[in-house]
Amino acid sequence: MQKTTHEWSTEAFFGKAQLYAEAMNEHDDSDWKFGLWSAFALEMLVRAAVAATSPALVADNQDWNNVLYGLGKTPKKPKFVPKSASITELVSRAEDLCPNFDREHANFCVSHFARRNSEIHTGNLPFDGIGPSSWLPMFYTVASTLVEAIGESLESLFGDIVAQRAREDIAALKDDTAKAVRGSINAYRLVWEQKSEEEQNSAREQAKVTSLRHYGHRVACPACACVALINGKAAGEARRTVDDDGVVERETMKPEAFHCVACGLKIAGYSALLAAGLGDTYTSTSHYDAVEYFEVDIEKHARSMMEDDNNEY
User: Fold this and answer.
1) All structural domains of the chain with their residue ranges
2) Which of 17, 86, 166, 307 has the most CB within a 10 Å radius?
3) What does the pLDDT average to over 45-55?
4) Whole-prediction pTM
C-alpha cells in the first residue's frame, strides 16, 4: 500500500512552492501578479523548511491536537480541523531551525508577507508600482537559503533559466564593491549643483535631444535628475504578437550600463546599477513588417524594423 504524503510534509509544501513559482514566472517581474505569486511561493518554502525537522512543528500549538495531527496521528477531538501556526510564527521557527536563515531573511519574509496580506485583504495595491530590484534580489537570497535547508536547489524550484538569473541577483546583492557607486553619484551631484542655472538648462536640453528611447531605456539620472539612458541584455525569450500593423516583439531587458549626457555620470555592471537604484528590468519593444518577418530568416538577414521602444510600461 502506497504511503500518503502528509499535507504538512516538506514534500507537499515544496511541491506547492514549485507550482506557485511557475505561476509567478508567467508574468514580467514588474507585474503585480509576479510579486503576489512570489509571496505565495515564499510562504510554502518557509513551511517546507520548518516541516523538514518535523511536520509537527508546523502546527498551531494553541491546541495540542494540531501537534498530534502533525505527527501523523488522528486526533479523537470531534469535528477536528487541523490548524497550522501563523506564517509569522513559522518564520520565527525557521530562524531557529535553519542554520543560514538569519534575522535579515526573517525581516524580509515578514515585510513581503505584509505586502501580500495588504494585497488580499485591503484596497491597496502594494505590488503595483514597486520596483522589482528593491526586493527581488533579497527574495532570491531567502529562497536560496530555504531550498538549501530542505535539500533542494534553485533549479528544482524555478528551472535552470530563472535559477541562473536568481544567482546573478544574489551575487549582485552581495557585491560590496558595487556600493561604492553611491559615492560617485554624490560626487557628480555636487559638481552638477555648482553649475550655473544656464549651464544646467543647456545640459538638460542636450540630454533630452540625445537620450531617445530607441537608443535605450530612459530613466532619471540619480545625480542630476536629467533624462538618461540605460542599456541592457535580454533576460529570457522574446514574446511575439501579431496585429494589423505587423509583428510586435517584446523582450525583458536586464540593465547593464547607464549614461547621463547632462552630467557625465556613467555606471557599468548590474551590481553597480542595483546599488544605484537602477536595477529594474524594462521592456524593449520592436515592430516588424509581417511579410518580411515571416518570409525571411531573421537570424541571417536584416530585419525590417520600424523602431525600438525601450520605455514600454
Assistant:
1) 10-174, 177-312
2) 17
3) 97
4) 0.81
